[in-house]
């Protein structure tokens, strides 16, 4: 049986920081409300000239650098995003060209905040089937361009950034022990971008006036309970698949949508909150890119060490959820 390993990670956060105090200046909200309800203090915002593939390019180059692989060695790029440069061609195609990965095939996956885990799942299966050797699994988002900056319930949550991993067929390096993904399309209307697809095309003055091109969160407080339960289920599933319990985990990296959700997950799983790696305060929710950005940060700052048992887990719009267990 072929083995899948993560041999390099990388991330990129745009330089511009937007604090809660900056948002107070144009919206009826406060740093106090945002911080106590979400755990977020600031988020990064991409420059006007940057597209999602630009953010991803830097994250991928950093991951390839750590892995010691060249652009020509990559044979597949899977980009998880809900904010591609364009819907056609796929965002990953622009990225492939910018990276000069001339030997790679590329495609996107759309699974909202669970996107990186969906992409990792596909990469793992392709590698184990012998179809690919060196895969760039990357997630990047410019959420600041799809949120409605007049909707205080939603816009305060999101930020921009990209994270990547070089995933290789090898029995050396961080071993991907298992990956798990799930979908519940029936609840897809709780977090969605209604416009821009065949349902509302062509784009009209009416659809723009109605704000259909913006990300919508319907009854966001109800997704709280669902999120906590799905995070916990996916975590238990990944631990059990390799004969472990949650107590065996060294580092848990969940998608970061709200600090209170993470506190609920820690309580439900019965783990100390310190085991949960957090980036929410400084980056907010970067949809699919949240997990690989946190992973890269934890690798580079030594939180994740050789032999660490690392659990990745995510929940997001779609609905989608998933997990992966990795022996570093
Ligand atoms: O990535 C996975 C997908 N993400 C999610 O599923 C998001 C999960 N949900 C959440 O994170 C939270 O539900 C929110 C942060 C979005 C909202 O927090 P909440 O504690 O559920 O607040 P709420 O929606 O119940 O609103 C409470 C009050 C309302 O006022 P009234 O009706 O009680 O007078 C809102 O109008 O807070 C008000 N409010 C705000 N006030 C100041 C809502 N947003 C704001 C704001 N600033 N930004």
In short:
With 328 residues, the protein is of the alpha+beta class. It has 2 domains: 4-173, Peroxisomal Thiolase, Chain A, domain 1 (3-Layer(aba) Sandwich); 177-327, Thiolase/Chalcone synthase (Peroxisomal Thiolase, Chain A, domain 1, 3-Layer(aba) Sandwich). It has helices at residues 20-24, 31-38, 52-67, 91-99, 115-128, 152-155, 205-209, 220-241, 259-269, 280-283, 290-300; strands at 4-12, 16-19, 42-45, 76-80, 105-109, 134-142, 160-169, 174-183, 191-192, 216-217, 251-254, 309-316, 320-327.
Characteristics of this structure?
328 residues, alpha+beta, Peroxisomal Thiolase, Chain A, domain 1, 2 domains, nine-stranded mixed beta sheet, two-stranded antiparallel ribbon, 11 helices, 13 strands, binds oxa(dethia)-CoA
Determine and state the CATH class of the largest domain.
Alpha Beta
Give the helices and strands as they follow along the chain. Answer: EEHHEHEHEHEHEEEHEHEHHHEE
Number of helices: 11
Query: How many structural domains?
Result: 2
Whole-Å distance between the termini?
19 Å
| Mean pLDDT across residues | 96
Low-confidence region ranges: none
Q: How many strands appear in the DSSP assignment? A: 13
- The share of residues in helices is 25-40%
CATH topology call of the largest domain: Peroxisomal Thiolase, Chain A, domain 1
Largest sheet: 9 strands, mixed
